[in-house]
Amino acid sequence: MTLSYNIDCLQYANWSEKIFRQMREGGLDAVHVTIAYHENFRETVLNIERWNRWFEQYPELIFPGRTGDDVRFARESGRTAIFFGFQNPSPIEDDIGLVEIVHTLGARFMQLTYNNQSLLATGCYEEEDSGVTRMGRQVIKEMNRVGLVVDMSHSGERSTFEAIEISERPIAITHANPTFWHPALRNKSDDLLRALGQSNGMLGFSVYPHHLKNGSDCTLQSFCDMIARTADLMGIENIGIGTDLCQDQPNSVVDWMRAGRWTKEVEYGEGTSDNAGFPAMPSWYEDNRNFSNIKNGLRTAGFSDSNVAAVMGGNWLNFFDRSFMSEGSPSVSSKMDAAE
């Protein structure tokens, strides 16, 4: 019997012992956590310091993840491996040399944009998408070299197509859904998802209500039927879960996520007409203890046991194995090798 793994490839919770214990109750072997939205390099280092204290305080629950083998060790030791990621390139500021530094400090994912135009690419909220910039091309090359995954979850369509083409390693969209199901600005078109699948990239399905059909009232059946249709579109081996869980966050954090330091005005969120804060989660996914509900929903939707295991974590683990090591490592596979 093939061992299955549970991986959530995006969360931004208000971290606490309670949440770490809920991860264990939910059987999470690995979680990709956001450690920067708009922070500069030094502020990001402070966030890493905070995580180091949690690793010291709760060693029986969590530890820092660096490679796919850490996910396997997490399963063996009954803990959750924590992988760091950025939702904006602000931690590297305007210095390409910081790409290698942040990877050394544990970062494994970096979005090229967070909604707005960045130094690297165009965000999904901009009216005009000018694509990946000159600096963006160089940063992608350096990310490929060191093993830092290009994440285009909040990027515009042209920029994402170009990132797929430019990157010599498969990219990821860690937390978004298809537009055929819900037309949120951050959700992705059929053509883009086909291109992502053809390049052996990964899509993580989000349960954040603004990305869901019918929002907080979205049903588990609808969510799993959407996953089935997306699997037909881009291949079962290229999809996983990236819940975008923001558990226990105060509404003030929404302002930080949306507005950062770039505006003095209220920045409204996806699918909202007011600044009401975080929406209620669907009843079938309120926290990490509900991770198995998705697994059960996939079975009900007709997925085989092997395909359920692939979506719930196996595909992400394969992606981790070939993505996090530097060029020249025997663990690194090219797109061609991955395709074979």
How is the secondary structure organized here?
Layout: E1 7-11, H1 17-25, E2 30-36, H2 41-57, E3 62-64, H3 68-77, E4 80-86, H4 98-104, E5 107-111, H5 134-146, E6 149-151, H6 157-166, E7 172-173, H7 190-198, E8 202-205, H8 220-234, E9 239-241, H9 252-259, H10 291-300, H11 305-323, H12 335-339
Parallel strand pairs: 1-2, 2-4, 3-4, 4-5, 5-6, 7-8, 8-9
What would you report as the Rg, rounded to the nearest angstrom?
Answer: 18 Å
Q: Shape from CA axes?
A: globular
| Helix and strand pattern | EHEHEHEHEHEHEHEHEHHHH
Number of strands: 9
Name of the CATH architecture: Alpha-Beta Barrel
Major beta-sheet overview: 6 strands, parallel
According to CATH, the homologous superfamily is: Metal-dependent hydrolases
Distance between the termini: 24 Å
Structure classification: alpha/beta
Proportion of helical residues: 25-40%
Q: CATH class, anyone?
A: Alpha Beta
Count of folded domains:
1
Summarize model confidence as the mean pLDDT. 93
Portion of residues in beta strands equals: 5-15%
List the uncertain runs: 271-275, 331-340
Q: Per CATH, what is the topology?
A: TIM Barrel
Number of H/I helices: 12
